[in-house]
Structure formats: structure tokens, C-alpha cells
Amino acid sequence: MLKIGRNDPCWCGSGKKYKTCHLEFDRKLENYEVMGEEVPYHSMIKTPAQIEGIRHAGVINNQILDLVGEKICPGISTEDLNTLVHEATIRLGGIPAPLNFEGYPKSVCTSINEVVCHGIPDPKRILLEGDIINVDVTTIVDGYYADASRMYCMGKVTPEAEKLVRVTKESVDLALKEARAWGHLGDIGAAISEYIYANGFTVVREIGGHGVGLEFHEEPWVSHIGTRGTDMLLVPGMIFTIEPMVNAGKPDVVQDDSDGWTIYTKDGSLSAQWEYTVLITEDGPEVLAW
Fold it and tell me: Is 60 exceeded by the pLDDT of residue 1?
């Protein structure tokens, strides 16, 4: 834990003296650490100014996903969605974070049916009646990141597909109830996995949520399978995504070697995902992007 003088400016950037700002907070963290808890570093705890910046990025991110919801339909191509997201992001004053991130070639991820995540928009991939699709949008606004994804059903889908999409979202909403200050990351994973498996589906293990806000991907890593009372302590100021990827079949996944990005279910079963960016506060979680 960083040692700061009582009368020094607080590390959080509030401008207050440490003794009147985060001194008691840090003492509480130290007590948890002495008891054997895994506590977050200061770098995982956002300052008030950073939180405001990330909150604003979330507003823009939500507007983009709202627009996707208005326009998406059978007959549209995933490249059309990419153009829509890219142009809306620029118009709203943002930057599409996926574009050129580690070589990713597009401004949004579009993952259809058996694609678990990182599906690349393609002018030849036309959405069809019965498809389910995840549209994953991450937006940078004034240097701050917000990240969220939503599922969309194209017309009439199978009962299995409808249940998969619905149950996946319900699991995220259940997880939010566990995203409480001084709880644990394991509480979130437990809530998701218990509900998903009780409904006959499986949770992808290799890919999880992540800290976000100052970078695209930050610590901590957020597993969607967990045990209550374990893993990192949740404290006010932490911001991370909750984004379970849920398969109708087995949880195993494979990566497309030809593009280096697209992740599929190994058995070809359907997959669904919803993603929220969540801020931990003393009064409960605040969803910044959804």
C-alpha cells in the first residue's frame, strides 16, 4: 500500500488532505489484507474525475447501442453495422476502441449464433431471420473507455435461442446484486454460473470480464464462474465489466486460425453474451454502460 503523509494531498486526486479523504479507507483495506484478503491496488480504484469521464463515455456508448437496436434487422450486413457504429461514434465525439486494437480491423464486434465473441463484420454476412447476434461496442471519449454489448434476435428465433438470450441477461442482472462494496469477485461468478447451469447452459471459462476506463482492458480479470467469499475484494471506485459468454452446449471454445480473432463454440452450439460496465459504490453498483 502506498504510504502518504496525513497532510499530503490524497492519492485519489480530490485535492483534499489524505487524512480527511482516503486515510480511513486505506486503513480498512490494510485490515482486510492482514486477514488474508486479496485487495485491489490504488491503480484499480478510479478517482472522482476519472469516474465522471468514464460515466460520460458510458452515455455515448449507450447511445450507440440504442441506435444499433433501432436499425438492426434481417437483411442488414454486419459491415453495415460496422459503418453505423463507426459513423455514430465519430459524430458523438468518440473514438471506436476496437479499430486497430492489436490489429483488429473493424470498429465493432458482431458475433452471430455459434460465434462466442470477436466476430469480425463482413459485407457478405447478411443477418437472417432466426439469427441471434451480439453487438459489442467500446467507445473512447476524451481518453476514457466504456464497454458494453447487447444481444439482438432477428425476427422469430427458436425457443432454445430465445431462452439462451434471456437467461444470459438475467444472469448479469443477478450478478449485479452481488456487486457490492466489500464483497468479492467470486460472488459475481457464483451468481452467474449457478443460474446458468441451473437453466441447462454452460459458461465459457477462458474469457472473462475486465477492468476498464483508462484502458481497454485493465485489472482485475473477472471470472464468470466463482465461489462466494473468494477472489479479490470489491471496493468503491473499482470499474469493470461483467460479460458472461453462455453456450447452449458445452463450454469449450476454439479460435479461428484464419483471422486470429473469431471465437466459436467447439461443438457448434449457440452462444450469447451481455456486457455491462459497472462502478462499485458504497451504495451499490452503478451501471455505466449496458
Answer: no
Q: Can you give the pLDDT at residue 4?
A: 86
- Residue matched to cell numbers 466476430: 119
Q: Which three cell numbers stand for residue 262?
A: 473469431
- Calculate the CA 34 to chain-centre distance: 31
Rg (CA), the chain: 20
* The three grid cell numbers given for residue 141, joined into one nine-digit string: 471519449
- Which of 288, 255, 290, 252 lies closest to 271, judged by CA? 252
* Nearest alpha-carbon partner for 120 in 261, 248, 257: 261
Q: How many helices (H) and strands (E) does the chain have?
A: 5, 15
Residue with the three cell numbers 451481455: 274
- Cβ 23 vs Cβ 2: under 8 Å: no
The answer to whether 215 touches 233, Cβ cutoff 8 Å, is no
Q: Is 41 exposed, middle or buried (0-12, 13-18, 19+ CB in 10 A)?
A: exposed
Strand ranges in 123-259 using DSSP code E only, listed in sequence order = 132-141, 144-153, 202-203, 209-211, 218-222, 239-242, 245-247, 253-255
**H-state helical runs in the chain:** 23-34, 48-71, 78-91, 159-178, 185-198
Q: Which residue, 103, 120, 66, is CA-closest to 88?
A: 66
Give the per-residue pLDDT at 13.
82
- The model's pTM: 0.95
172: Cα separation from own chain's centroid = 10
- Residue 192 CA to residue 251 CA, distance in Å, equals 14
Burial class (CB in 10 A: 0-12, 13-18, 19+), 191: buried
